[in-house]
Description:
By secondary structure, the protein is an alpha+beta fold. The protein has two domains: 20-98; 104-236, Immunoglobulin-like. It has helices at 2-12, 14-18, 20-54, 58-70, 76-102, 200-209, and strands spanning 105-112, 116-124, 139-146, 150-157, 168-174, 180-185, 194-197, 213-218, 224-229. This is Lipoprotein. It comes from Stenotrophomonas chelatiphaga.
Amino acid sequence: MKHLILAVACAVSLAACSDPEAERQAQQAAEAAAQAQKEAKADDVAKQYDTAVAAKDWERARMHGGSLLDIYKGTAAAARIEPGFADVKAQSDQARNLRRMQGLWQYNQIPVGTKGTQRSASIYGKERVDVDGSGPKPVQLVFRDHPQWKQHAYLVLQAGDFRCPGGCRVQVSVDGGKPRAMAAWRPDTDEAIAMFITDHAALWKLARQAQAVSIEFPVKAGGTRTVVFETGGVDASQMPWK
């Protein structure tokens, strides 16, 4: 069988079987054809990459660019996109992180009889906090616009309580910067463990502009606790505040 295959191969290309130079040229031609086919496929992927970059669809651009540099390494298209691919990956990481932060927010619109609609935007802290020795629990920051109760911003605990008799202050910092004091107050009620921050408009503005807002607040168990809210993905259009 082996001899038969060799005979057929020689019959197809007799010159190649008897002439080393012709055999070398045939091999080169086959390699050139394969490379040309690879270049053509790479060009198709590069077009998709260019389209994604132009549209600033960084995650799709990263996918196509990675394919070029992996599967189609050694092609002209891969060589062309390689110098700028690090920036595309960085943009992709930022886009992915923004999408993650956008998913941290919850928005609600609830009709309030004939008075209008209550709007709210809320987010949980990055890390759970132990405020009373019972173990770490979520802390929530809520912005609310109510047709009757108007605009508010407040923190909500699931356990323990705030220490804010007759009013107090919280320390608010943006993206790790210098903290600023903001007035706060706790409602005289046991129905909810909440503490309102008086300058809600300023806090909302900080949340819209920052990647992260840190709030340090006093607790009944003693001392203060700090919680970080990754606010960078907020949809400002959800609240009718300037």
